[in-house]
Q: What sequence folds into this?
């Protein structure tokens, strides 16, 4: 991955290349983003730039052996940790799934956490970076560099580390071996241990402009600029989210009926119907439950924008406009803030592996009380 291939965040890429050129790269950097902004591609481009012996004009050459190894995630001094659902006592589970990880990145560098769990076949259970992985990281970084240069550890979603794993890693992050670099990619930096976060330089990715996303979407999906620009606006500046909207056209139809069922039940004041719907949701896989909550939040945002007279900037698809307008008319303004809070609480509980029956029963009761 070269900087030129990363979509958006031009000023950040220029800043990184200048820091690398000056030899002042911090030993630990935390890249925070919203899902799909491209932090992992930025990290890979950074590692490739640092490793390339023929870099020029602020970018790696992309042709030398080191560049090719980095781009395929096959460099012997490049290591990864990411959340998995392997047994807690298993040694270095990330290494066991390295081929799946590489294949997922090769297919789509902007993949989501849900994509990873599907590829691993563990979509019903949230992953974790456990003590076994922490031991694997310490072991890998304690060895000498295979090629005599830098060693890199990329930790994807460090907020998924349990407390014991985070505490084990703290010492090596505080006192890394020579020419060792940590790159963290996080969607929720506030969930990291403060002691780890304080040891990292921070870099925040920003949403890409619609025109930056539209071009790559046109090329990848063979669609018109008008359609690509529309999807780019709806995605909120996330290329990954835009690709998922186009690649999975059934996503809306999969979750929209349950969302409508929930809202209709709230408006009708029908608690029994709400609880029946919550029971069905509780029987779906955990990642589908999480995606339902995220979809619900986004749909609710569109209704809210319509309610306050800002529907023109709500990025509502034409197929959804009638339903959005109807719910905006039926729901009062006091409904929205506590409804968003209820959904956020449900999401947090799902990530923490709380029993989904309890999660969706609680959500149904909270929404019912807002009628």
A:
């Amino acid at each position: 991955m070269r900087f030129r291939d990363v979509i958006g965040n031009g000023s950040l890429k220029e800043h990184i290349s200048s820091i690398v050129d000056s030899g002042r790269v911090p030993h630990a950097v935390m890249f925070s983003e919203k899902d799909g902004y491209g932090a992992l591609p930025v990290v890979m481009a950074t590692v490739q730039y640092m490793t390339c012996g023929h870099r020029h004009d602020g970018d790696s050459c992309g042709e030398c052996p080191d560049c090719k190894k980095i781009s395929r995630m096959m460099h012997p001094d490049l290591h990864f940790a990411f959340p998995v659902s392997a047994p807690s006592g298993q040694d270095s589970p990330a290494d066991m799934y390295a081929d799946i990880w590489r294949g997922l990145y090769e297919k789509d560098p902007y993949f989501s956490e849900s994509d990873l769990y599907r590829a691993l076949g563990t979509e019903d259970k949230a992953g974790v970076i456990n003590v076994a992985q922490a031991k694997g990281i310490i072991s890998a970084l304690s060895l000498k560099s295979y090629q005599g240069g830098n060693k890199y550890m990329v930790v994807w979603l460090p907020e998924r580390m349990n407390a014991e794993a985070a505490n084990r890693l703290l010492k090596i992050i505080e006192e890394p071996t020579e020419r060792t670099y940590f790159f963290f990619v996080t969607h929720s930096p506030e969930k990291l241990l403060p002691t780890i976060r304080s040891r990292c330089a921070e870099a925040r990715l920003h949403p890409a402009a619609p025109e930056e996303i539209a071009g790559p979407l046109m090329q990848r999906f063979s669609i018109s600029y008008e359609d690509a620009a529309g999807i780019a606006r709806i995605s909120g500046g996330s290329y990954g989210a835009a690709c998922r909207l186009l690649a999975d056209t059934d996503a809306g139809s999969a979750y929209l009926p349950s969302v409508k069922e929930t809202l209709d039940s709230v408006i009708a004041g029908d608690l029994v119907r709400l609880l029946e719907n919550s029971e069905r949701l509780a029987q779906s896989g955990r990642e589908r439950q999480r995606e339902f909550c995220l979809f619900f939040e986004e749909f609710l945002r569109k209704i809210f924008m319509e309610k306050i007279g800002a529907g023109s900037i709500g990025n509502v698809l034409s197929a959804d406009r009638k339903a959005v307008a109807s719910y905006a008319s039926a729901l009062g303004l006091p409904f929205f803030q506590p409804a968003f809070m209820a959904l956020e609480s449900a999401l947090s509980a799902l990530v923490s592996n709380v029993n989904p029956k309890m999660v969706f029963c609680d959500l149904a009761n909270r929404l019912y009380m807002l009628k």
Remarks:
- The beta strands are 28-32, 78-81, 151-156, 180-186, 201-204.
- The radius of gyration is 22 Å.
- The first strand starts at residue 28 and ends at 32.
- Residues 8 and 212 are 6 Å apart (CA to CA).
